Amino acid sequence: MKAKIGVVGEGDVVFPFKLLNFSTFSVENASDARKTIKQLADDDYGVIYLTENIAKELPDVLRFYESQTVPAIIVIPSQQGSSGFAHEHLRETVRQATGQDILD
């Protein structure tokens, strides 16, 4: 079975992902994103890409899903480019999984 992939974030960022046949969900704020992520998790999405600007406002959501097998939430840069949050989040996730900082 192929995992469903969703992209959550600002409309101008998520729109191009439609070309890759990903499900896209444009949200205006962290509250909308929180509800959308919960719904996607309930709908058995395997991967959720989440923009940095929104992810920064949802540390509790990121922590919760890090402890779950699925969905995997992957933070991606917003249209303004990367603030470094996505890289730091990935670094911390890998460090927790491996016990080492292998992305240095």
Based on helices, strands and strand pairing, what is the structural class? alpha/beta
> Could you give the distance between the termini?
35 Å
General shape: globular
Query: How large a portion of the residues is in β-strands, by DSSP E?
Result: 15-25%
Number-wise, the strands total 4
SSE succession: EHEHEHHEH
Please list the strands of the largest sheet in the order they lie side by side: 2-1-3-4
Quick check: average pLDDT?
83
Topology:
Elements: E1 4-9, H1 11-14, E2 23-26, H2 30-42, E3 45-51, H3 52-55, H4 59-66, E4 72-76, H5 85-98
Parallel strand pairs: 1-2, 1-3, 3-4
Characterise the protein shown here:
The protein is an alpha/beta fold and 104 residues long. It is 41% helix and 21% strand. It has five helices and four strands. The chain has helices at 11-14, 30-42, 52-55, 59-66, 85-98, and strands at residues 4-9, 23-26, 45-51, 72-76. A four-stranded parallel sheet has the order 2-1-3-4. Strand 1 (4-9), helix 1 and strand 2 form a beta-alpha-beta unit. The longest helix has 14 residues, at 85-98. It is globular, with a radius of gyration of 13 Å. The termini are far apart. The mean pLDDT is 83.
